[in-house]
Amino acid sequence: MALWNRVTSASSRVLSLSVGCVGYAGRQCYSLVSSVPSFLPQRTTLIAREYRAPPPPLPEPKYLEIKGCCKLEYVEIRPYAAKIATVILVHGAPGSYRDFRYLIPLLAEHPGLRIIGINLPGCGDSVVEKARYIETVDALRTSEVVLDGVRQLCGTKEDHDDVFLVGHSFGAHAVLNMAALNAAETQSVAIRGMALLAPAGCVPHKSLKLGATALMVKMFKSENSWAVSAATYITKFVYTKLLRFPSNSPSELFVSAVIRTGTTDFDLIRDQAKLLGSFRTPTLIAWAKNDEHIQPEIPQELATLCPDGPHLEFSGGGHNLQKTRADEISKAIIKWVNEVVAKDKLDEELVSTAASPRVVHEPQSPPPPLPDPKYLQIDNICKIEYVDVEPQQSVSATVVCVHGAPGSFRDYRYLIPMLAEQQRGIRLIGVNLPGYMGSEVEKAHYLKTVSALRAAEVVLQAIRQLCGTIEMDGGDIFLVGHSFGAHTVINMAAMNETLRVAGDDVNTIRLRGIAVLAPAGCVPQRMVKEIPIKMLVTLLRSRSTVVVRLATRFVKYLYTELLGFPRRTPATSCVSAVIRAGTTKFPLIRTQVNFLKEMKMPVFVAWALDDVLVEPEIPEELGKLSHPGPRLEFAGGGHNIQKTRVEQVTAAMSSWIQSILSECNSLETGMTQHLP
Question: Could you tell me one molecular function GO term of this UniProt entry (predicted)?
Fold first, then answer.
């Protein structure tokens, strides 16, 4: 009897909770559904539109299976002449490709355009597996699924199919998501531009009620079948009875719209718009002043973030511009597509007739293997990975090699063995900076530890432990930095000399000179100018795991696909590189270089005229600002002269080290040697 009482009591509580949820949902439903733009134009209170003749019928739909989670329904009109591009049309929430039924025939009049209208997961006959329904109709996941569909339909960049994405209302969010996700993919689609029509933007628009939307999403995600059924019933009732949508429309159409809007991350949308805008992604944006759902300030902000493209503001036309202003919109899109494609072809011709930015160097025979790495714990915040090549005779000095961003001690795999052979009394240490390869950083300290100045502090601390300080009677030390490693070496040298001047022998190493190869200098090099590093650092510091994940993928894409770093480069190394570059203070580098000159710190500088990442003026200036020492200018060799010109570099460096150790000043001329 006691058990029966507990069961009935529990059942009463569940029933009471469900009724309460349903009741509250009922009170909020009209507010919720009226927030979804695509449906509202059918309400009688909306602005009357001029009569339009019915458009010609759309072709029969086709279907595409996506990773076993859903089936995408789409319509396709193929060009009747040589194809110049494919236009992908993405509807709002809720909606279907029929929202573009006036625009599609007009776009298809262009003989070279392939037109594809897609029904998003959960809309029309784009059926989703029941077990994966909630996760698949989520805002970001929907974009991933549709991007996968576009990849299957249009191929990747290697297939040379230029693609333009067109999104209406909440479809603009899907388009922004797809473009940002695509930019981070190795096998990416050739997306050439975006068109955003009456777009949802970076903040909730006036007819979107976030509280009601969140409640409905919570009910749909509930494990309580009563709550899910009630929410589904009420949602369809409001759409079909109050807003007069066809009663035969499936419930999933309305449910997917609610979940899609309720899982939208507006901060992520802003970050993606900034990212795509910084890469000058061609973006057509059109809106109407009398849009009853989206205030003009929202598309205007998007136009500011994505400035490269035509921006069209209509005095009338309401929310469904793709219908009410179909003639003007179609002409604008066709003109814009033609201009972008023509510009891309011109750019390709210019690149093909110019010298290749990727310098091809003569093959190098494989160097002898480096020793197995060792590890050093620093302050319980990170583990430093390094290689240590002991000398063949008594130690005369230690050379510490510091890599660039990204990079590793393997960047010196040619130089270390050769220098060890030429200077048999030299101990050689190659260090992986925090965040690179096996130099792992505690997650809680990651962003701070991989920043430019803090990374230099950590490595200097490691050198103290490995080589000893003045008070410990530590030996002579030389620092070698390649590319951004030059900054780290300059940072460490300036920190150390400051301690030495202050008389802090406990923490001062016996530093005798620094060598910088293909160095970053006192002003940003072209690589830093061409990449939106500051913005990427902001994204990587985001509290949103989605933003961080996308930014990480994008960063690796930049380094491996655009800058030519090896594709095997770990994403963590690329992220550390961006943060290191983004936290570099170039005025501080100049100040430290001047300080080291006052301290008469010997500096060896070498560079190549054909370096594609660092223009020659930067190391030339660095050489002039620094204390006299060898200056080597190579006609060729590119950015990695520690590999391509290893014989000349090691020979000159060996002589320089020997002259300093022997207290000979014959190499302190500062004259530049011009080498092939």
Answer: hydrolase activity
Phi, psi of 139 (to 5 degrees): -55, -50
Tokens representing 589? 């580098």
Cβ neighbours for 501, distance < 8 A, ≥ 6 positions apart: 599
Nearest 5°: CA angle at 72, between 70 and 77? 170
Neighbouring C-beta atoms of residue 529, cutoff 10 Å: 10
Edge-to-edge strand list for the sheet holding 283-288: 62-66, 70-77, 113-119, 85-90, 163-168, 191-197, 283-288, 311-314
Name 387's Cβ contacts closer than 8 Å, sequence gap at least 6.
370, 371, 372, 373, 374, 409, 416, 429, 430
Whole-number pLDDT of residue 36? 44
CATH dotted code for 62-206+265-342: 3.40.50.1820
Distance in angstroms (rounded) separating the CA atoms of residues 282 and 222: 41
The domain limits of the chain are: 62-206+265-342, 374-524+585-674
Strands 374-378 and 283-288, how do they pair? unpaired
Q: What are 62-116's pLDDT values in tens digits?
A: 999 998 789 999 999 999 888 899 999 999 988 999 999 999 999 999 999 999 9
Q: Helix or strand or coil: residue 125? A: coil
Residue 628, token pair as written in the block: 């006299």
Distance separating alpha carbons of residues 411 and 590, to the nearest angstrom: 26
Longest dimension (CA), the chain: 103
| Alpha helices, H only, 199-242 | 210-220, 225-237
CATH number belonging to the domain at 374-524+585-674, selected among 3.40.50.261, 3.40.50.300, 3.50.50.60, 3.40.50.1820: 3.40.50.1820
Number of residues that make up the chain: 676
DSSP secondary structure string for all residues of 457-514: HHHHHHHHHHH--TTTT--EEEEEEETTHHHHHHHHHHHHHHHHHTT-TTS--EEEEE
Beta-strand (E) ranges in 121-190? 163-168
Average pLDDT, rounded, for the chain: 86
Q: pLDDT at position 50, please?
A: 56
Quick check: helix, strand or coil at residue 177?
helix
- Among 350-364, 532-546, 572-586, 650-664, the minimum mean pLDDT is found in 350-364
Helices 545-557 and 571-582 pack at an angle, to 10 degrees, of 90
What number of other Cβ atoms are within 10 A of residue 264's Cβ? 22
Residue 659 token pair: 């002259």
Which residue do the tokens 């205030």 mark?
295
Coil/strand/helix, residue 233: helix
